[in-house]
Protein 1
Amino acid sequence: MMAGLTRLTSGAALDDLVAVLERDGAAIVEDLVGADVLAGLWADLGPCLESGDFSGNWYDGLRTRRVSSLFARTSRLTPVVTHPLYLGAARALMQKPVTMWIGRARQEMVPSIQVSTTQLIQIHKGQGKMPLHRDDALHLRPHPGPTTRVQLMLAMSEFTAANGGTLVIPGSHHWDDERAPKSAEAIPTELPPGGGLIWVGGVYHGGGSNDTDRPRTGLTIALDLGNLRQEENQYLAVPKEKVLAYPEEVRRLLGYDRCPPGLGWVEMNDPDIVLADDATIREAGLVTR
Ligand SMILES: O=C(O)CCC(=O)C(=O)O
Ligand SMILES: [Fe+2]
């Protein structure tokens, strides 16, 4: 029997979580958000799941419901995406300084990070295992290598071995691209509602099979390095007024930020200028949107 994933609580030291993520590529935070946060998210997002259809393809799961554009559908994701352990781990693992010469000046640039995908994933009875995969395969990068994604799965319902709790192969982010993942190597994520699984993009994982009568619901957010293309196009998925409902830190994470030294500008400026009101935009002589 393989040991389970390392389990921490919200009060854990960030350095301890980062050390576990570097070693295993995945960790559990038992109590990521409280019942009030969870209830608010259910109130906003639950109806979207109920009115939605099952996925139309085998990979996403024919007995799985998925809802995306989460920052457009709820304004209550701040405590999730800015949780000090989740955001802190993402920053620690991805915002590594890069040095460069600009003329004769040796400069250090720290990349930004950004929300890359959001999804509610509800696995129903009869859904089989998802193929084990690496989510950073999207980045078409060789392994092993620097972390380009840190992802969260917030349990909106209980996660168990029987109901499809995410299967994870600890340590598989250290593997090269020749080694194939095997089902027998994967261990299920077990979480109470409000708990979270944090994992890095290079770790093999996948949804489990649900053999129970009750659906398993998770809310996933991925934070990626800011110099990569977002998986889910946040600029198109989240209308301006929904972006403005979030605090500046979250707006920056949604992509209204520059990745140093200079990716993502608008009008030679920070892209968040497009969030200003129309009068200010006209006064500054910028193109109105
Ligand atoms: O639902 C899960 O537990 C994981 C889903 C997943 O890995 C994915 O959609 O890429
Ligand atoms: Fe995945």
Note: The mean pLDDT is 96.
Protein 2
Amino acid sequence: MSVVTEQPQLGATSRPTFPPPVSYGALRLRSRYLLSPLAGFTNMPFRRIVHEIGGVGLTTTDLVNARALLYQSPKTLELIETCEVESPFAVQIFGSDVGTMCDAARLLETRGVDSIDINMGCPVRRIVANGSGASMMCRPDETLSLVRAIVESVRIPVTVKMRLGWDATQLTAPFFAREFEQAGIAAVAIHGRTREQGFSGSVDRDGIRQVVEAVERIPVIGNGDVRTVADAEVMLRETGCHGVSIGRGALANPWIFRQLVEWETTGSFGPAGTFDERLALMQQQFRYLAERHGTESAIIGFRKMAHWYLKAMHVRAKLRHEFQLIRDPDGLDRYFETLAAEGPVNGNRTGELPEMHIPVPSGPIERW
Ligand SMILES: Cc1cc2nc3c(=O)[nH]c(=O)nc-3n(C[C@H](O)[C@H](O)[C@H](O)COP(=O)(O)O)c2cc1C
């Protein structure tokens, strides 16, 4: 007697019926799997790496202060730098002043940005205290006027990324999504948590589904806690969302977009990178940073990212720490030689690496 199992085989997660390809207005995305902004991590070298691996539908910058953009401060201009392979490319802006946000949107359009995303989900105190980020969900009238004005000031698609609401008593995302669609917003991305939750608890997929049901035409992008192809399958199936955006899961596994597209088109997918492939990726990302900033500044600028790469690669703690002490290119070369020779502390260098943990702000939200 043969046994029928519903358990998916490794690399062959079951497939839902996929919605049509995702477009933001006239802009057709490369796939329905998007990179979610992670301030401090999803910089241009990382986004370039993700595009080069393939499968990603759209990449977006970290949140950019609209006012600082108008001052054209060098740090802000660096945030919106892009490269040829990064297409399509979106910039996420935050702010609460109508004139400033519209001017920033126009500036981005003249610089050739494909799409503008409005941040309405950031829970961090310094952002919400200025009336930006998630606090916009507490002022519907003002927020809708702001969104209408931005949409009217540019021809490129404008999208919104938001949370389910401010807290469990104000789950306003479906209301906003419906109003945004009327205002001409091209898509909404929804992180399935409230602002009060921060990054705690689990993602409420039922809440995301209510957003999907609230709109008529525009795509809804589901977001939160997707780490694997199987997680994406659950997100698509349970919420009916049209696309999935992935933040921390992409830092842990930059191959995830390629795996997802393979899965969608063929039903199976290849493995994530091995130790040696991750080492090559890390060195490549470092080179991109060094091309822009020079090797010595890149060594300092890469410390935060290296910390997580090395954790994901299961490098022993002392050797991980030694990256933070490197001061010059010779030290870096020696470091990479040692790393290549030593390999991971557990597992082997050609096998798939286990998942990596990405920290999120913790503790009471008021202290973030
Ligand atoms: C370190 C960090 C930085 C983030 N920066 C941004 C940001 O700049 N803009 C934004 O819209 N969301 C930001 N987020 C939220 C993520 O885009 C995403 O909504 C959230 O992490 C849930 O998705 P994930 O589980 O796939 O990471 C950030 C999250 C983290 C952990």
Note: The longest helix spans residues 275-293.
Protein 3
Amino acid sequence: MELKNSNTLQNLAKAFAGECQANARYVFISEIAKGQGLQEVGCALDAIAKNELFHAKTFYNAIASCGEIPNIEINGGYPFKETTDLLSDLKNAADNEYNESTSIYPGFADEADKEGFADIANRFRLAAKVEDCHMKLLCDIRNQLTDGSLYKRPSPVKWKCENCGHETTANEAPEICPLCGSKQGYVKLILSDS
Ligand SMILES: [Fe+2]
Ligand SMILES: [Fe+2]
């Protein structure tokens, strides 16, 4: 089967559209976090946004291997749920990542295998793994924001200012960096997978 005539081409176009949306949504949520003084949370979201852009690129490149295609009609979901409430934005984003990693991309991968596109199936499966990491990261950040542990721990830990590199070991991250004067939001996140 030629990719041009396959369901996999449709799935690639859906994945491309979904990744472009995800990229934009993470940039929006990052702006919300930074607007609340949570610079490093914003940077974590920027890093996810960059991943989504490169996912978009790999799916786009697979489509482009067919040569020029005037248009691909697709049906997709376009929810508009982002608000200024960071916690609900993180929850919605984690839910989307969960759906991508457990159902959407594995389904696309199986269909690509059936149609004889092993390389594309592999890309869907590799992307699903990354989306699972995104989901865990988003949940971790959301949990830390909810239980107050983002910059406060029951026993001393090492905190590092991401602007000047100053490190200190304490229960709580300094509200103002004693070396450069940066606010607490610039202190490096302590994440469960790092
Ligand atoms: Fe992605
Ligand atoms: Fe993702």
Note: The chain has two domains: 3-147, 152-186.
